[in-house]
Design brief:
The structure holds two protein chains of two kinds.
Chain A: H1 2-6, H2 12-37, H3 43-49, H4 51-64, H5 72-96, H6 101-124, H7 136-139, H8 147-166, H9 168-176, H10 178-183, H11 188-210, H12 215-227, H13 233-257, H14 263-281, H15 287-311, H16 319-327, H17 339-360, H18 365-368, H19 383-391
Chain B: H1 3-33, H2 39-58, H3 63-87, H4 92-113, H5 123-128, H6 148-151, H7 156-174, H8 176-184, H9 186-191, H10 196-218, H11 220-235, H12 241-269, H13 278-296, H14 305-309
Helix pairs in contact in B: 1-7, 1-10, 1-11, 1-12, 2-3, 2-4, 2-10, 2-11, 3-4, 3-10, 7-10, 10-11, 11-12, 11-13, 12-13
Classes of the chains: A mainly alpha, B mainly alpha.
Chain lengths: 401, 320
């Protein structure tokens, strides 16, 4: 059953929903990347909550005009209008008043949502217009989706994705260096507007599948996840798009195959699982690799300090240092250095002495900046330079008795 | 509006609404000033899995397990956001977005998978709350306020919310000075010996407690709106913190009463028979108040602009 769903063999409608969700996930991942890079991830939260009153008003208007309240394009148009109003208000509050952006976002999101709920209670008491299922916009519902609905979602998600890819150059530039973008003649305000338009489009298209509360996850989670895997913007875009697509595809397929599993939450949770895996296991920025790097560094420091102590004839009390020296074969279990260990210690001491001369010499400032207590000086200076430094090491003198 | 109708049906929900609004607005002042306004949003989303888990573990629709679950979820969320931010080196907004959407999704999934259909536990209820249903059946009129038998039948939410409000007020009263200093100048506060990290965490936890207590009674919309709107409105009316906090409490209470009345009686005045969502209306009213202050409030502009605009403050050049 699950395999049937993943290989799109559960009938035309399920296939359309799964593919539409995948396109939506890709568009959201790519569009959300710019929001994330511009450090405005939570604006999407306000945008999505602000769709609710628009859906309500559109429903009431369509019924009042004698139509069917559940006409999807009409509802989506209403959603787009009211979340545009929300965006304009956030912008106005942030620029014209002393409120910080997060307060503006929170105020708009709660008030619009509250007003939307008021409208929903109005609609609940209306006798005409088949209002059942309107709550699906809160949490997403694919169950009551008509074939035309699924087609609308698939087509508009594809359009949105194409638009993002077309606009990615100016969007990237505006996200990273708005000053430079402005200097090269780009209209940054218009680019920002385009970015918000994309977010709006993704949000509105995603309402029916993921629901207005969880569409935020599709915009935020894939870019954050992608950031773990690459340092390049195009990389983040590509990976975020893929992650968004995969989460939505797998989530939609799971919910089609297993009864009782709602689509929106499962898509979000698949995306979150991918995030967790990346947080833990990504090669450069992941937690595991950071721990490993830390351990390696710790080991190197302990060994070096242990060798220096041996060279100066000091007793080693630090347990980890002792264990590392013994494991390397440089000390015996009682803490006495082996032949090989004494050789290593002498070399470490020589290296440290050379470094001290380098760090005192203003002429070698560039090399001295590389000192970290671990690096061998041979990796920094040429043999000739080392020879001149060695000449400055004071020769051993006999101790007068 | 006579007592026989008002006291049993409207008095208690209105009082609870006022308690919720003020309990959220008071810590909200500091959250807004510290640019942590969206903590309220995050908390109100993550308590859902806590409530569901509390129900599933104990198997009963009693308040305490659910509230404990919600509080635990709020604490888990605060820790998780901090962990994601530090371990993944991700900016706070995005970290918050990742954590609260995932926890909310988990809550919804848990709710759909578990058989909770026989009890009144659904997502809509958690979001909207239902303030209107907290009626005082034992009351018969104003005289019930001094009748011990009738007072016993008060909805327990009222007592809980009043206790939460008291707790919030005590916290602010005790830590007023360190809170004030660390909000405006964290470095200075640290040199004064204030443990700003602990204080910040305490503020978030107190806010979470207020949110959880309120959530049970009135749903999440009011909570988010009251954390932000009344403090933001008050901030545009004054430059003094003490005045701002007092004003925010007043505005919150005003929103609650006005919102409740408009939700209950507004449609009647317009000729409709049914009332609308009180929680939604309270949020709407607080938003309208905020818009009003943002348009005409005396201190609506950023730092000093208001002073520069007033003609008296501009020094006039001496005439030759």
């Amino acid at each position: 059953m699950l395999f049937d769903a993943l290989s799109l063999q559960l009938g035309y409608n399920a296939t359309l929903v799964t593919l539409g969700a995948m396109l939506l996930g890709m568009a959201a991942g790519v569009g959300g990347t710019f929001l994330f890079l511009r450090k405005r991830a939570l604006v999407s939260d306000a945008v999505s909550h602000a769709t609710l009153p628009g859906v309500g008003i559109a429903f009431i208007v369509m019924v009042a005009l004698g139509g069917d309240g559940r006409n999807l394009p009409g509802l989506l148009a209403g959603a787009a209008l009211s979340s545009t109003a929300g965006l304009v208000l956030i912008d106005w509050l942030t620029r014209r008043t002393r409120l910080a952006e997060d307060s503006a976002i929170g105020a708009v999101l709660s008030v619009f949502f509250g007003f939307g709920v008021v409208l929903l209670t109005v609609i609940q008491t209306m006798t005409s217009g088949r209002q059942a299922g309107l709550e699906g916009f809160l949490l997403g519902s694919t169950a009551g989706m008509l074939r035309t609905d699924a087609q609308i979602i698939a087509v508009s998600a594809a359009l949105t994705l194409a638009l993002v890819l077309l606009l990615r150059r100016p969007l990237t530039l505006a996200a990273f260096d708005p000053e430079y973008a402005r200097a090269t003649g780009q209209n940054v305000a218009r680019t920002d507007l385009a970015m918000m338009g994309l977010v709006l489009a993704v949000t509105v298209v995603g309402l029916k599948i993921v629901g207005l509360i969880m569409i935020v996850a599709l915009l935020i989670v894939p870019p954050v996840t992608a950031r773990f895997w690459t340092e390049r913007t195009d990389g983040v875009l590509l990976i975020a798009g893929m992650l968004g697509g995969v989460s939505a595809y797998v989530g939609a397929a799971l919910s089609a195959a297993l009864p009782g599993i709602p689509t929106g939450p499962i898509i979000v949770l698949v995306g979150f699982a991918l995030f967790l895996v990346s947080l833990l296991f990504a090669p450069q920025r992941g937690v595991l690799s950071a721990v490993l790097r830390h351990r390696a560094y710790q080991k190197a420091v302990h060994l070096r300090q242990g060798l220096l102590a041996v060279a100066q004839g000091q007793q080693i009390y630090e347990r980890l240092t002792l264990r590392l020296l013994i494991r390397a074969g440089w000390a015996k279990p009682d803490g006495v250095a082996t032949e090989q260990g004494r050789g290593r210690a002498a070399r470490a001491l020589l290296d440290e002495t050379r470094w001290q001369i380098v760090r005192r010499d203003p002429a070698l400032e560039a090399a001295a900046a590389l000192y970290d207590g671990l690096r061998d000086i041979e990796t920094v200076l040429t043999p000739d330079q080392i020879a001149t430094i060695d000449a400055r090491i004071p020769a051993p003198r006999a101790v007068k008795s | 509006m006579n007592g026989a109708e008002f006291v049993p049906l409207s008095l208690v929900p209105m009082l609870i609404g006022v308690c919720v609004a003020v309990a959220c607005a008071l810590p909200g002042n500091f959250l807004v000033l510290r640019r942590q306004a969206l903590i309220g949003d995050a908390i109100s989303h993550v308590v859902l899995p806590g409530i569901v888990a509390g129900f599933l573990v104990t198997g009963m629709v009693s308040t305490w397990p659910m509230m404990l679950g919600a509080a635990a979820a709020a604490v888990v969320a605060v820790i998780a956001i901090e962990a994601v931010r530090r371990l993944g080196r991700i900016e706070p907004g995005a970290a918050m977005g990742v954590v609260f959407t995932a926890m909310f999704a988990g809550g919804v999934l848990l709710l759909e998978l578990s058989d909770t259909s026989q009890v009144h536990l659904d997502v809509e209820h958690a979001l909207y709350g239902n303030l209107e249903s907290l009626i005082w059946l034992d009351a018969s009129g104003w005289s019930s306020l001094v009748d011990p038998a009738a007072l016993k039948g008060l909805p327990p939410e009222l007592g809980r919310m009043a206790a939460a409000l008291l707790g919030v007020m005590l916290f602010l009263a005790i830590f007023w000075r360190p809170l004030k200093i660390s909000t405006f100048d964290e470095g200075f506060a640290r040199t004064m010996g204030v443990r700003t990290g602990v204080l910040g965490l305490a503020l978030v936890i107190v806010s979470a407690m207020a949110a959880v207590a309120a959530f049970d009674a009135v749903g999440s919309i009011i909570v988010i709106a009251m954390f932000i709107c009344p403090p933001a409105t008050a901030r545009m009316l004054t430059n003094r913190l003490g005045v701002q906090v007092a004003l925010s409490a007043g505005l919150a209470a005003l929103s609650a009463v006005l919102g409740y009345v408009l939700a209950g009686y507004g449609p009647l005045w317009l000729g409709y028979a049914d009332s609308v969502s009180a929680a939604g209306m309270i949020a709407t009213v607080s938003g309208l108040l905020l818009m009003l202050a943002a348009t005409i409030g005396p201190h609506r502009r950023r730092g000093g602009a208001a002073i520069a605009l007033s003609p008296r403050a501009v020094p006039r050049a001496p005439r030759p």
